[in-house]
Structure to design on (387 residues):
């Protein structure tokens, strides 16, 4: 396994996790990478590491360039174990290496690994001279944990952005212009929707913090390195962080005897009649992490479930819990469903969407099986609410 050159003296030495299909609940159909980078200068510097079970791969890639025991500095941009899991092994090989990390990074790494490593907590505006190259740091708290920071390599104009601008794709291609654009941006959006979405304000602050930098390359800790499409991904992040939506609807539902599904299609017809694109997202067939990719930009979020045991179906409850945590804003919501007697599922969904801060339309409830006339009325009612 070899290192891959990013620029003269700068190498990708990460790992490709081809088999990963679930990243703490987020379905990663295309696998993932954990990106670590090696800077060869008078001082040898490793930026981040990889998940613990990928450490051999990282060490092999480093060893193709330099003996890992020669590493002088390790920059830890983020404590989460997909980036710090390789630290114990690399520090066994290079015990003298100094770990440059944020104050919260030091706290987090100590709490995770209980080791008296050679830590250096970065002070505001601190720079680190590597010989001919210089790195600086900018805190980016909550993108994705309180400890997060980004590292900037001045002379080469490279931003090592850690989780920001990542995508979960297992690939041997290393650059944004080497993989199809639709896959690249779909995975970047899915990543944002499932990992970064709750932290829009912090993303805006992070974007401000890096706005003064001259950036030629963004090297995130997951997926491919951005070199050709930097303005496009920055523009997407700007929109996503501001919770800007498109005129589209996500209709998310589960159904017991197809009555709630019939209501879902009646709602869909209203959007279609108004030329508003919709996505029908049956919770039996769509994973909640994929649904979030559509919710990321959908102005209308409609959620339906029949009533079962005085509540909604567990698939709908799981989705709503996930949605609330990811906290999208500026949406219009609608709760709908069929019921036999109690009908509690629909107000429960309505409350859950209200707790997300959505502007709610009046709920749609149908007893048992909707008649054709009732379905037409639902379509008409929703159509009347639309501009
Ligand atoms: Fe890729 Fe927050 O770790």
């Amino acid at each position: 396994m070899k290192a891959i050159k990013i620029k003269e003296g700068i190498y990708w030495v990460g790992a490709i996790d081809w088999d990963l299909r679930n990243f703490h609940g987020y379905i990663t159909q295309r696998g993932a990478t954990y990106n670590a980078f090696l800077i060869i200068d008078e001082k040898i510097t490793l930026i981040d590491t990889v998940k613990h079970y990928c450490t051999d791969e990282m060490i092999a890639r480093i060893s193709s360039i330099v003996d890992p025991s020669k590493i002088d500095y390790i920059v830890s941009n983020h404590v989460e174990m997909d980036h710090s899991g390789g630290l114990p092994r690399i520090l066994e090989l290079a015990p003298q290496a100094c770990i440059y990390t944020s104050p919260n990074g030091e706290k987090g790494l100590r709490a995770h690994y209980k080791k008296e490593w050679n830590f250096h907590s970065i002070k505001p505006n601190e720079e680190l001279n590597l010989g001919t190259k210089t790195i600086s740091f900018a805190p980016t708290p909550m993108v994705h944990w309180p400890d997060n920071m980004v590292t900037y390599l001045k002379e080469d104009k490279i931003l090592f952005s850690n989780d920001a601008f990542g995508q979960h794709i297992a690939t041997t291609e290393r650059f944004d212009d080497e993989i199809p654009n639709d896959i690249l941006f779909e995975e970047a959006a899915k990543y944002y929707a499932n990992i970064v979405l709750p932290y829009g304000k912090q993303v805006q602050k992070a974007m401000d913090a890096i706005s003064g930098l001259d950036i030629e390359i963004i090297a995130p800790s997951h997926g491919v390195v951005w070199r050709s499409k930097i303005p496009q991904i920055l523009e997407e992040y700007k929109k996503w962080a501001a919770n800007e939506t498109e005129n589209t609807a996500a209709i998310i539902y589960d159904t017991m005897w197809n009555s709630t599904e019939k209501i879902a299609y009646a709602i869909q017809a209203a959007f279609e009649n108004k030329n508003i694109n919709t996505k029908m997202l049956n919770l039996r067939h769509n994973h909640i992490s994929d649904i979030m990719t559509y919710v990321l930009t959908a102005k209308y979020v409609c959620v339906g479930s029949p009533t079962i045991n005085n509540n909604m179906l567990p698939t709908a409850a799981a989705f709503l819990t996930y949605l609330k945590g990811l906290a999208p804003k500026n949406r219009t919501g609608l709760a709908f469903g069929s019921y036999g007697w109690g009908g509690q599922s629909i107000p429960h969904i309505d409350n859950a969407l209200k707790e997300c801060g959505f502007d709610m339309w009046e709920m749609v409830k149908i007893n048992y099986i909707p008649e054709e006339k009732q379905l037409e009325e639902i379509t008409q009612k929703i159509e009347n609410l639309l501009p």
In short: Residues 246-385 form a domain with the Rossmann fold fold (CATH 3.40.50.360).
